[in-house]
Amino acid sequence: MSVKWGLIGASAIARQFMINAIRAQADGKIAAVMSSSPERAQAYAVENNIPLAVSTLDELLGEDVDAVYISTTNELHLEQALAAIEAGKHVLCEKPLALASADARRMVAAARDAGIVLGTNHHLRNAGAHRAMREAVAAGRIGRPIAARVFHSVYLPENLQGWRITKPEAGGGVVLDITVHDADTLRFVLGDDPVEVSAFTQAAGMAGGGLEDGAMCIWRFKSGLIAQSHEGFTTKFAGTGFEVHGSQGSLIASDVMTQRPGGLVLLRTAEGEEQLSFDHEDLYVRSVRQFHAAIHGGGQPAATGEDGVWSLASAEAALQSANSGKAVKIDPKLGSMK
């Protein structure tokens, strides 16, 4: 049985990654694309060999599609996802699911009540490097995890700057763009949940309108582990990385906080240093494959709606901390609370 997709948003991420990922599935087809600009929708459909271009959500949801991929600006996610769920379409939504964790919980509840599969497109969970790290932590290869560090400060390409650095009302800023990913990747690799965050943000020259283009966060997890993360839009030469340090060893990964498969993961213990092997499958191909399996009744998306609530509540708490100058507790059931 094929899965027919509608794209909500004629976006760069869909063009670069998701269209190919859907078409890489034996049962995946793209039926339509929606953009609020009819001209953009039509041009995008022609460029990407998509049969139908529409300019309203109602038109798209009225078509014969089984699932939608939402990659519009952040403030539109909630309304579009709720409408798709009501129309009986499965939803794979870009992060953050909404601008507030309370709204993300509404989305999760609506999907659950309707029997709809809701996934959050946290692509980094699908990286072979992060899955290898998660398996090593779970197997006790570094003993008891004590601390972690994430380096995810990059340079935002000019073609992606736009609303991310100019529009607070659209959910711009580095925290809702990158910190959400780091919070999710920490949860995934560690198998642990953050309970408190203290954050500093900065405007280092790229972002305007009161938005932040850099952030550093200190996280406390349920187990007692502490972690730090650095997110940014303004560092051209930084490189990315992820470290987990335990009582019996350390995992040290480089070039792994990216959309491309690859990077290097080293396990360092008293026995010496070992390079972990892992698959290099396309992150988005794997994400869509798991989403299709969930639609067909086989398991869950790589990142569920609940995972999306967690990452948004974490990012929300980081913004509250930066604004208040105080550590903020994280509770995905209630939204972040001071």
Automatic annotation (TrEMBL):
Belongs to the Gfo/Idh/MocA family. It comes from the Bacteria. Residues 130-251 form the GFO/IDH/MocA-like oxidoreductase domain. Coiled coil: none annotated. Residues 4-122 form the Gfo/Idh/MocA-like oxidoreductase N-terminal domain. GO terms for molecular function: nucleotide binding; oxidoreductase activity. Keywords: Oxidoreductase. SUPFAM superfamilies: Glyceraldehyde-3-phosphate dehydrogenase-like, C-terminal domain, NAD(P)-binding Rossmann-fold domains. This is Gfo/Idh/MocA family oxidoreductase. It comes from Mesorhizobium erdmanii.
